[in-house]
């Protein structure tokens, strides 16, 4: 069947808009958590947890990615049995409800470890829902698109993941600006989660008006729907070979490029380089804003020259460029080195009497704002150990650097370097939906394409922030050690894809 090739441009535009809006909101819901990982960690774990709170929070974040392949199996099977429309309508409801409930969960100080456990359970539901969303949206759009233009039309779906991140960052920054830093850390971080229910309501209304895919409708009317999509996808040798090729030759490398260029970049700038909270997020916002149109550029280009080498070039450039880029980030914000002092020197804080005043469980913190030659600004926090009694002599303290601020010229360079990373994301991600749907027959397309996509993105890609941060915390590691994980995965995927993936330009109608 010629899927909408004779239909009006308005028809395909409506299909893309309805599919993209729901997918964008699901990504927004999914990524709020990652954007607020530091603050959420402070709410979910004891106040003295230190760095382990961030690592544990990133582990909860990663759990949502790990279960995405299971969501792909569950909802992919439903999509191939009952249809694309109702399946990703269900995933939208599950995602929106889970996000809203995360915003209502009390903190550790109120319910103890029940707080992170409840959040973990909701993250698992989010992961399952997202596992069923993307395959449905991509399949739905591809089955409406005319032959020879699937890369262009499905690339609009590809923008939604990045735009969802953009929206989550924007809502966070606006909320923080309106209520202030202190209120945001205490309760305002919940606002972006709670607002999502309004966005989900609008999207559900729009999706209810959508029609089923014409390709699936024809298949159903002819009685050719698969009786067992899972069995046909993974027990037939030829199809299972395509599943493995899609995973190891494409989505695995695409996943680590995606999450390094957007999530790990943000985490590295904030937690390793100590950039100011707002500044690190504005850098990412500007980079995303400038790079997002290239999803469509590379998607459309793949209709003309094929999907393979556009995606693989993005992987290769990541392998070659990540370490130099992150080394520049590190060198440019190393204020301790610029001061020519040791990283963890000790000193004494002078008070009126040379003593700590207050109760026995008090801490003393002094914040000093400095601007170095060259324009880099930062604050020093000098944090004491807890005094043993009210009138104990002032103990020695350790100086730590926080809230680095960049001069204008360096700020622009940072935006350009993050933009380049997001540009690589558009190269690997823009053509991949069309690449995946063209690999598999209609009867099992939803199931077959969803699984490799969500293993590649949810497991290999989604674990980038957690694994990279964990590796960098090991004894003997450097701040750049974590990059070896995405670099190694992208390099392996490049080699497999270069040898085994076909670069044909698919001009055929979709069966």
UniProtKB/TrEMBL annotation:
InterPro entries: MFS_dom (IPR020846), MFS_sugar_transport-like (IPR005828), MFS_trans_sf (IPR036259), Sugar_transporter_CS (IPR005829). Residues 15-505 form the Major facilitator superfamily (MFS) profile domain. GO terms for cellular component: plasma membrane. One of its GO terms (molecular function) is transmembrane transporter activity. It comes from the Bacteria. Keywords: Cell membrane, Membrane, Transmembrane, Transmembrane helix, Transport. The chain crosses the membrane at residues 12-33, 53-75, 87-105, 111-131, 152-175, 187-206, 242-261, 281-302, 309-329, 411-437, 458-477, 483-501. It is found in: Cell membrane. It is a multi-pass membrane protein. This is Putative MFS family arabinose efflux permease. It comes from Dyadobacter jejuensis. The lineage of its organism: Bacteria, Pseudomonadati, Bacteroidota, Cytophagia, Cytophagales.
